[in-house]
Amino acid sequence: MANWFKREEKRPKLTEEIYQTFRKSQDFVCQLNNLAIRPFWLSYQKNIVDTKVIHESILPYLLYSKIYSIKELKSIIPIENLVITNKVDEIEEKLLQGYIMVQFHKHDSDCALIGAEKFEKRQVPTPEVEFSVVGPKEAFAESLDINLNLIRKRLPVPELRVKMFTVGKVSRTKVAVLYIEDIVDKTNVQTVLQRISDIEFDQISDSSFIAQFLEDNRNSPFPQMLQTERPDRVASVLVEGKVVILSNGSPQALLTPTTLVEFFSSYEDYFMNWYIASFIRIVRLFSVVFSILITPIYVAVLSYHHELIPRDLLATLITSRREVPLPPILEALFLELTIELLREAGARLPTKVGQTIGIVGGIVIGTASVEAGLTSNVLLIIVALAALASFTTPVYVMGNTIRLIRFPFLIFAELWGLLGIVFCFCFLLAHLIQLTSLGRPFLEPIYPTRLRDLKDAFVRLPFSELSKRPVYLRAKDKSKFNINDAVRKKDIDE
Question: Which residues contact 86 (CB under 8 A, 6 or more apart)?
Answer without folding.
Answer: 14, 109, 110, 111
